[in-house]
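Bench notes, afternoon.
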Amino acid sequence: MKTDRHFYLILAIIAVLLFARSAQTARAEEGFPPRPAARGPFVSVGGLPSHRTLRDLPDLTAATSDAREIPQPDFPQSPSREPLSPPKFRPVGPVAAPLPTALTAPTVTFAGLDFAHWGTGWPPDPNGDVGPDHYVQAVNNSIAVFDKSGHRLKAVTLNDFFDGTGTPCDEYSKGDPIVLYDALADRWLISDMSWAYDTGPYYQCLALSADGDPLGEWYQWGYLVSYARWNDYSKLAVWDDGYYMTANMFQYFDSDELNVRVFAFDRTAMLNGGPLRAVYFDLNDYTATNYYASLLPANLHGPLPPDSAPEYFLAIKDNSNYGPLRLWEFRVDWAHPENSTFTGPTDISVPYFATAISCWGSSGRECIPQPDTTKGLHSIDNKLMMQVQYRNFGSYESLWANHTVDADYNRDIAGIRWYELRDPAGSPSIHQHGTHGGFAGDTTERWMGSLAVDGQGDMALGYSASSGTLYPSIRYAGRLVSDTLNTLRQEMTLTLGSGSQATSYRWGDYTAMTVDPTDDCTFWYTNEYYTETNLVIGNWQTRIGAFRFDECALPVLYGRIYDADDSTAIAGARVEATNHLSATVYLRTADGSGDYRIPVTAGPYTVTARAYGYRPASVTVTAPLTAGADIYLRPADFYTLTGIVTDSVTGYPLAARIYVLGEPVNPPVADGETTADPFTGAYTFTLPAHISYTLIVQSDGYETEQRVIGPLTGDAAQNFA
């Protein structure tokens, strides 16, 4: 293997950047705008994760740190923000009323985490996701696991949860937590940001459950993001080839210095508890012409995207009342990470909107009125709100997004603009949009939105609602796929607030609408509210609730995966269902009992199961099923993979660490990593056929190497030097 030449590489990069900076400055002085650029790809490979079993941690029963405001940098004001008044051709007045049909009432609501027992400041950043049997919620700075009836099974601080990584993640949780359920793999993903000193270095704390049980074992990584820039407002998403993340990168003491970093984390390596591999790009500074900030990665639900589809990123240009929406594509190549690309943006025209809601107070961010206090709440009207949702419906692909706007220019009332964008890989355009709020005779402000889309194409939007006479409350609205385009139905109240937040203008900074993977119809939403107004310290509450459209009813493919030799169930098998008519592919992972359950659209399917150590097998079925579709797998042949790891110059053996990742299924951790003999450099794996493998070789002081081999048809050798 080659020795690490990072020092010389860093010097070369600095020289290139200085030259590029000079060229960019000269170009600007000549009257040309700076060239938009995505710098990268940059590749990093970290160490192995620590391990933590959530059910073994002590329950948190009271707040453990002083109240504080979660850090929030001052975004530089975009120049030339257009005035509030609309163009002359645009009529001024209230938005058209929603459809008269109301949504269904909540099927369940229950209390989530609150400030007094589990919070550390404002805002709470309430979010969460739903799995087959649990709802996992996160706030600043704790997490909790609930069953679907609302019984809290566990609650711990993020510091206790991440303790053991050997990084600041162990004791310096700084907020912006995210919870995601990866339905493709039956895993849970939790993220948080951390640093021990305001001057850095800065970390992203990442945790992935070892299986579908959120109370069980977790893999945890403390990922070094930067020595100099703080990774603020990090947002994550699930895609089939990686976990993707964005962050606004600030100089801690100079918030005018901002760029955006986009990351792809190797999902396969993380699922196997391997070293954390990342590919990332940096975008231009926020103060440049293009104003790139707060990008959101698309979160995958339902069928997989078409083969070779990129991950998509969206942002709204916040210095213009015409947008546009901006679309990027991230294509990661894990076999050759240096070939990864991040391209864009493609600008997508949107109908006129006004972003500049009038605000007051010393912060200039008190925009939303509430009873009992002159303190207003921040509307966060300069960015898209999580998540951007992706769906592949076979005949078309769509992205959905929302952000806060001024819904009525005359009365200056906050509302929520939402979009459905279609054909992101071809000629992306807005298929439909709407503005929810600013209705005639209605003074309610609506903001802090989050939306999701079910397997039928129905959309639900959750948000906060407040006015001078309405305490901040939690509401939701939505539409059936068959409803008139650009419309939502009458809203419903999930929780009626009975108090205001008089201690801080910070509200949110985000909420979470998600879809239940068991039926792909039931929406789950979490947001914050108050039960009383306290002028000294505000005890925010959170609520979790579920609802669905009665019209949503998807057939379900289900069954169990068995060993064909002894009829024992096979846990963790990968199950793919391919629709014969649309060619869409659904992917799920069998649970600990070998059972799988896949909500699908009606039609004929080929269902294929794969598991480590077995040959793949398929059955053909038609949804809806009349009986379970069980699949029996026969054991695969195993072969020996050997090799030697040596120094490329001296030929001396190295005590390297070797990790094996499998595609389409991973080896278990015990079979997927080893250490080369320090005296001979030799290593050995015993691996089954029918799988392609990526070998990752690491040794202290040497560059990480990787190689793709297989599928194996016999014994093989792979040497590294």
